[in-house]
Design a protein that fits this description.
Blueprint lengths: L1 H20 L5 E7 L4 H16 L3 E7 L4 H13 L9 E4 L2 E4 L6 H14 L5 H5 L5 H7 L8 H5 L2 E4 L3 E4 L5 H13 L2 H14 L5 H33 L3 H24 L10 H15 L4 H19 L6 H10 L5 H29 L7 H24 L8
Parallel strand pairs: 1-2
Antiparallel strand pairs: 1-3, 3-4, 5-6
Helix pairs in contact: 8-14, 8-15, 9-10, 9-12, 9-15, 10-13, 10-14, 10-15, 11-14, 11-16, 12-13
Length: 403
């Protein structure tokens, strides 16, 4: 009995020694990245350090911006992990994943997951998902697009008429948001409605009611724009990083830009060509009816509803600015609340000219609108900006990824 106990103890000890003496098998981890993505480059540098630190660590890399097969693979893996596929880098370690890269927290998270897998059982969810697929097919699908050459990285200066030279790498996302929102605000289609509303408000005796109704119209217009842009953003994030979507919106930007530049030369009066006289007259009558309501609550609700209707009808007059901006926004990996914060920032500067005109009119009791000259040149600059963004979306999307 004692002899068998000793023998069992020796066998257990020897097996433990063997286990510690032999290093674990190769740990395969899988990185989905996009060419030119700044966060992906930072994670790549960290993974290179980990490959040197752990000799049995192997990193498989899959470029998804320009490789449809890799994008499809990315979708399959993310779906099996019940993960969001809205952005890269996306790292799969065993049956866990890490989305995005923050220099202060992500390196520690990745290292901990790798050490955990190396120390014990680590089911490979990547291979489980691909069960039944030939490894040769996987190797073909996983072919990565070569990294951007150093010479291409240097080509970051763009010369734009009237705007001069722009360094697209140093041009921050907040600055782009402010510029695009401000240029989008010079929208004659919505401005004429506000000016007519002000002309009616100035004839009222109740100054408090004037302020409330005018502010309600501006707030309603801002809310419509927020809902429209949020819907566009969520649609793009839902569809994911699909090449044809980016190309389509890039073409839309080019078309919108050319239309705005053409409108600068053709439409000397700077008026909205999308609103006919009949439609304007109908809206005028609705505004009069709303203002003349005896019930203040009905007037307030009517003004808000009118703001929704006018902005939904005339939103095409923005020449696609909101849709194109949300595409640029989706290229940048951000927390969800930051996406909405940027949309709010965009709308603040989009509405700033309307608010300026309204406040000035309420204080001076005079209607002061944007002159034709300023509106026309704002449309020209906006058109040139759209052309630049369209070209970048199609040929250099990485230049629109800030950070």
């Amino acid at each position: 009995m004692k002899r068998s106990f000793v023998l069992s103890f020796v066998l257990i000890f020897l097996s433990a020694v063997c286990c510690f003496a032999n290093p674990p098998d190769t740990l395969d981890i899988h990185l989905f990245y996009g060419e030119g993505c700044p966060h992906c480059k930072k994670e790549e540098l960290h993974l290179q350090l980990l490959e040197k630190r752990f000799s049995n660590l192997k990193v498989h890399r899959y470029e998804v911006y320009y490789n449809d097969s890799n994008m499809e693979l990315f979708r399959r893996i993310a779906k099996s992990l019940e993960a969001d596929v809205s952005g890269v880098p996306f790292l799969v370690v065993g049956n866990e994943y890490v989305v995005g890269f923050d220099e202060t927290t992500t390196p520690g998270i990745i290292t901990a997951k790798i050490e955990k897998c190396l120390a014990g059982p680590c089911p490979d969810s990547f291979q489980i998902t691909l069960e039944g697929r030939e490894k040769t097919d996987l190797a073909l699908n996983a072919s990565a697009t070569p990294a951007e050459s150093s010479s291409a990285q240097k080509e970051k200066i763009i010369r734009i008429p009237l705007l001069g030279e722009i360094d697209v790498y140093s041009f921050s996302l907040p600055m782009l948001t402010i510029v695009m929102g401000f240029l989008d605000g010079f929208n004659p289609c919505a401005m004429w409605t506000l000016l007519f509303l002000i002309s009616l408000l100035l004839g009222m005796k109740d100054k408090r009611k004037m302020w409330i109704l005018g502010t309600a119209f501006i707030a309603g217009s801002a809310l419509v724009y927020f809902l429209f842009m949020a819907a566009w953003l969520n649609l793009i994030l839902l569809l994911g990083l699909v090449l044809w979507i980016r190309i389509t919106i890039g073409i839309l930007a080019l078309g919108s830009g050319m239309y705005s530049v053409r409108d600068f030369w053709v439409n000397k009066e700077g008026t909205c060509t999308l609103s006919g006289n009949v439609r304007r007259q109908q809206i005028y009558e609705k505004i009069k009816a709303i203002i003349n309501q005896h019930s203040f609550v009905l007037s307030l609700c009517g003004i808000i509803l009118l703001a929704f209707m006018v902005n939904l009808i005339e939103i095409v007059c923005s020449a696609g600015f909101p849709a194109i901006y949300t595409q640029v926004l989706s290229l940048n990996e951000l927390p969800l609340w930051k996406y909405y914060a940027y949309i709010v920032l965009y709308i603040v500067f989009f509405m700033i000219d309307d608010f300026f005109v309204f406040v000035t009119a309420m204080i001076t009791f005079e209607i002061t609108g944007m002159t034709t000259k300023y509106v026309r040149y704002a449309r020209l600059i906006g058109g040139l900006t759209m052309l630049m963004i369209g070209i970048l979306l199609i040929f250099r999307p990485q230049w629109l990824m800030f950070g």
